[in-house]
Amino acid sequence: MLFNSIGFLIFLPIVFFLYWFVFNKKYQHQNVLILVASFYFYACWDWRFLFLLLFSIGLDYFSGLQIEKSKTKKEATFWLALSIIINLGFLGFFKYYNFFIESFADLLGGFGFHPNVWLLKIVLPVGISFYTFHGLSYVIDIYKKRIPAERNFIDYAVFVSYFPLLVAGPIERATHLLPQIQKRRVFNYEQATDGMRQILWGFFKKMVIADNCAPLVNEIFAHYHTESASNLVLGAVLFAFQIYGDFSGYSDIALGVSKLFGVELLKNFAFPYFSRDIAEFWRRWHISLSSWFRDYLYIPLGGSKGGLMMKIRNTFIIFLVSGFWHGANWTFIIWGGLNAVYFLPLLVASKNRQNLEVVAMNRSLPSLKEFLQIFVTFLLTCFAWIFFRAASVSDAVSYIGKIFSQTIFSVPANLPYKVLALIGVMLLIEWINRARFHGLEIARFSPWLRRLLYLVIIYIILRYANFGNNEFIYFQF
Question: Which of 28, 122, 284, 367 could form a disulfide with 270 if both were Cys (CB 3.0 to 4.6 A apart)?
């Protein structure tokens, strides 16, 4: 079930009504409703994978209890290792089996051996990377004694399978979400209206920006051999806005929907294309994943406590693993490696935490230096996105090779003025609200002006949105 589908627009009001008007006597009843709704939401994709989700929930619930009641460190480590191995085993099989087999065959081919490999037609369960990470963080936190094991199976199952975040995040922590699930929720009108604003902004970014960029990007990347260099640059830039509109749009809808049920989710995007360096970009892009790798991989590896070589090693590890998390293709690994290379000069110069404040705070416009920093960071990001979007490494290399030709100085053919203007509208609104939680959290405007803006956004969606059955990009991860 897609957020941008008729089915969801029917599903959401029904669950909302039952949640606040039928099951509102006890939060436990609301949790049962949310769990049933979440399972139904997931089963709409493929009911067979619901059993995999249930197994994952049961595994980590039981493992958490066993870790907590273990009498020795060795016993607790056994249960932790068992949970991690099984979770990553399932993730590895469904997501990476064919990749490993093909890569191994290619390696043997380099030595003159050409084995017949057995590839499987594996369907990737939607959201498996996200709910697997929910469970892993939970059992690790219990092992580290950060949280107690949850006894109530319903509450834990809601934490893992909560439908707004189930298929594409944000990646939640038990320390943040479980306490909200385990207390009475009272309907908050201001929270709900803010949720509606965030949902509206998410639909704008997904259906107007991402879905209008998508066919242009697909055309350019599919026929890059015959495109001019300037068109290829345009394709990379449009993909940058496509993936941002698509994924941050999903996150805005997810966070907004959750607010309707009185639950606040972790912020996942903080206007990343206004970043002044790559370090700032990664503090603002897919925040829940970046912080997950920081807390459960980077810091356990030693973080920044060791010498420079250890810092460099750990940085490359988390960026390469982050790339590999996104998909079973060498393009994602190179994309992660490129971002590590971008990050390296900042790390060596100890400038990776120099831009912690919002750009041009208390000013309407950035300085010339800030503008150039934002522009260069965006260009570097677009360059890396080429590997992320390309079907193969060879396609990405060829695409980049064609960019560096004389036609780069030509004007792109058939400039999509409408799409560029809509991107401009998005950037303007987000620049105005860059210090706030989301793009339509416009507190500084008068009420009538805010309402006028909402009507304009609704009109733009109705007038320019791509109403096809367009899935979100991150569902494949």
Answer: 284
d(CA 351, CA 21): 53
223 has catalytic annotation: no
Q: Which residue has the tokens 């498996």?
A: 128
Share of the chain above pLDDT 70, in %: 94
Res. 119: pLDDT tops 60: no
Residue 192 contacts by C-beta under 8 Å, 6 or more apart in sequence? 259, 260
What percent of the chain lies above the pLDDT cut of 90? 77
Residue 35 C-beta-side C-alpha neighbours within 13 Å? 19
Q: How far from 31 is each of 27, 158, 344, CA to CA, in Å? A: 6, 7, 45
User: Is the CB of residue 461 less than 8 Å from the CB of residue 207?
Assistant: yes
pLDDT for position 123:
74
DSSP character at residue 5? S
Nearest to 331 by CA among 99, 137, 63, 52: 99
Question: Are 320 and 333 within 8 A, CB to CB?
Answer: yes
* Rounded Cα distance, 12 and 36, in Å: 13
Q: Which residues of 128-141 are buried (b: 16+ CB within 10 A; e: fewer)?
A: bbbbbbbbbbbbbb
DSSP three-state, residue 277: coil
User: Domain ranges in the chain?
Assistant: 6-186, 190-276+355-476
Tokens at 304, concatenated: 């920044």
Residue 448 dihedral angles phi and psi, to the nearest 5°: -65, -35
- Which residue in 243, 288, 475, 287 sits closest to 381, CA to CA? 243
pLDDT at 126: 85
- Exposed / middle / buried, residue 454 (Cβ in 10 Å: 0-12, 13-18, 19+): middle
CB 248 within 8 A of CB 268: yes
- Kindly report the number of other CB atoms within 10 A of residue 70's CB atom: 16
Helix 27-46 vs helix 153-161: angle between axes, to the nearest 10 degrees?
A: 50
Q: Which of 359, 332, 354, 379 is nearest to 434 (CA)?
A: 359
Set 134, 286, 326, 438: catalytic member: 326
Res. 102 pLDDT band, cuts 50 70 90: low
pLDDT digit string (tens) for 312-334? 999 999 999 999 998 888 999 99
* Mean pLDDT for all residues in the chain: 91
105 has a pLDDT exceeding 70: no
Which residues are within 8 A (CB) of 229 and not within 5 positions of it... i.e. 6 or more apart? 402, 403, 404, 405, 406, 407, 408, 410
| Residue 315 DSSP symbol | H
> Can you read off the two tokens belonging to residue 372?
């150039």
